[in-house]
Amino acid sequence: MTTDMGSPALRLAEIRRVRPEDAARMRALRLEMLADAPLAFLETLADAAARPHNEFAARVAYTSAGAGNAQFVADPGGRLVGHAGGTTHPNEPGLTVVYAVYVTPAWRGSGLLGELIDGVAAWSRACGRPELLLEVVVGNDRAYRAYQRLGFKDTGVRVPHPNIPALNELQMRRPA
């Protein structure tokens, strides 16, 4: 622990699996994610904001336990500052698909991205899935380089963006 707790990069954030009691803070983080990076996620800010709290709470409860789907958060106390999810792949039993990766702007460059991915990777290995896959919008060079630094390799596979036909996503993989 450092003595300078004023700088976000120097404060500590616990990386942990989301818990049911995190629902309100997860909702706030999800809305921030969608406002900050609208192309990176599979729903719009308007759709998420219109969803009732009990739906957020049910999703958080679902991803708080089990081997099929998990969400990890960066929690410095107070507002959540990062998120990464993992889910099974329907056709590859040894693969976890990493989704909804986000670090709030003030915490970028602090190492939280790697810690969140490490949380998903440890969960994936514990569930018997030794490989991770994620998708990045083609042209999002900042995210692409960040994932490369974390050991992800571009597979050469390109897939259409699920919501915006004019965009493509590239797939990256690494061991869990």
From TrEMBL:
Pfam families: Acetyltransf_1. The keyword Transferase applies. CDD domains: NAT_SF. Residues 13-176 form the N-acetyltransferase domain. PROSITE patterns: GNAT. Keywords: Acyltransferase, Transferase. It comes from the Bacteria. Gene3D superfamilies: 3.40.630.30. This is N-acetyltransferase domain-containing protein. It comes from Micromonospora noduli.
